[in-house]
Write a structure and sequence with these properties.
Largest sheet: 7 strands, antiparallel
Strand content: over 45%
Order of helices and strands: EEEEEEEEEEEEEEEE
Oligomer: single chain
Shape: elongated
CATH class: Mainly Beta
Structural class: mainly beta
Number of strands: 16
């Protein structure tokens, strides 16, 4: 309905200009304990994410998420872990099979210490993008991630 001001000018309904953005969000976390012995250096060990959080316009896949709407997204992931020997670790996300440098976290020389980190960043993602978390480990040993010790969340900020 069109209203008129005291001066006879047409004015529209109050509210934001344009349509509201379409929401897109989702996440996964690990619900099981991971306890794996590695015999030597490991490249691209998939971070196990097996339990879905609430989702809208995203879809859960094995150890990852698929983005259904293009846009600028805030991505956050975390890992709590320990390892039985000194090694360095590099954690990162892959987007549709490509390693993203902005997501990388490197942790050096751990031995039997529970270590935690969280990383957040923004990325422009196309519809159909697939997100998965990985880590590289420089030496053999036993990896331990407690239940709930890893997660990946996404939130669309803008189309």
């Amino acid at each position: 309905m069109v209203a008129f001001s005291a001066f006879g000018l047409a004015v529209g309904d109050t509210g934001p200009a344009g349509p509201a953005p379409i929401a897109a969000f989702g996440g996964l976390y690990s619900s099981a304990t991971v306890d794996v012995i590695h015999g030597g250096p490991v490249t691209a060990y998939a971070i196990q994410l097996d339990t879905a959080m609430p989702m809208r316009n995203t879809a859960a896949i094995t150890n990852g998420l698929t983005i259904e709407l293009p846009g600028i997204y805030e991505l956050t992931y975390y890992v709590n872990f320990s390892y039985s020997s000194n090694a360095y670790f590099e954690f990162y996300l892959e987007v549709s099979g490509l390693r993203t440098a902005v997501s990388a976290v490197r942790i050096n020389d751990l031995s039997r210490t529970m270590t935690s980190f969280e990383r957040s960043f923004l990325l422009q993602l196309p519809a159909g993008a697939v997100l998965r978390g990985f880590m590289d480990i420089s030496a053999g040993g036993e990896l331990y991630i407690p239940a709930g010790g890893a997660g990946l969340m996404v939130r669309r900020l803008e189309a």
